[in-house]
Amino acid sequence: MVYHILDVRHWPGKGNVVADSLSRMYKGVPNEEGQGHEWMVSKDWEAASGLTHDLFAIQSPTDEPLTRYSSPGTSVEEQQHLLTQFAKEPLFTLILQALFEMDQGTDERERRKAVHRVKEYMVEVGKLWRVADGRRPRVKARMEVVTQEEMMGLAREEHERGGHWKRDMVKMELSDQPSPHRHHINVTIPHHLALVRALLSIPS
User: Fold this and answer.
1) For residues 79 and 96, what is the distance between their CA atoms, to the nearest angstrom?
2) What does the DSSP 8-state code read for residue 129?
3) HSE (CB half, 13 Å, CA atoms) of 152?
4) For 70, which DSSP code?
5) Coil, strand, or helix at residue 124?
6) Nearest-CA neighbor of 192 among 154, 173, 165?
7) What is the DSSP-derived secondary structure letter of residue 71?
8) If you average pLDDT over residues 89-110, what whole number do you get?
9) Of 36, 127, 136, 138, which residue is least crowded by CB atoms under 10 Å?
């Protein structure tokens, strides 16, 4: 069937004689019980069968208010601990504030950036994790986020544990550990020491 619509116009209800008459058929007639006049809308199926899942809210086991991305049981103490841990990392501070919904008074543009980034992060067991997004060839489903100072300590331990590996081996082992400067990690190895220095962040 082929047709061509030239124009669409609104047809007022009072112009439709049949529909208008049906809508006014009970006007001025005394109400009787059971006619449905007590209802604003028609009863749906749950009026007869009842709600199959009568669930209105989910409470945290610790009675702490839940946020959008926090796991049940993320207490206020854990939130403050994470904010203190990443106090020197502006990027992760914004992400944590967005996770805990503490960014209401910040700049609107920065809030939008944080909301965009926060989709790849989550908080669980008192730690900040980066969740795999399917765009990067990572085997791990999630990775723990550490600070730059913690990354330096991890590099030192990895160097000593691996038999004093060279720079490339240490960098490869730590490549799955997110840090604020994970794309610009410079590993230099003096005698019996592995140091991680972020480019333009920690002077050499």
Assistant:
1) 8
2) E
3) 10
4) B
5) strand
6) 165
7) P
8) 77
9) 136
How much is the average pLDDT of 9-24? Answer: 79
Taking CA atoms, 87 is separated from 75, 143, 190, in Å, by 18, 20, 30
| DSSP 8-state assignment for residue 43 | -
Q: Give the domain ranges of the chain.
A: 2-49, 76-201
SS in 3 state form for 157-190? HHHHHCCCCCHHHHHHHHCCCCCCCCCCEEEECC
Q: Which residues contact 203 (CB under 8 A, 6 or more apart)?
A: 197
Q: What is the separation of C-alpha 62 from the centre of its chain, rounded to a whole number of angstroms?
A: 21
User: In whole angstroms, what is the distance from residue 21 CA to residue 60 CA?
Assistant: 54
CA–CA distance, 197 with 32 (Å, rounded to integer): 82
Give the percent of the chain with pLDDT over 90.
0
Most confident of 61-70, 75-84, 179-188: 75-84
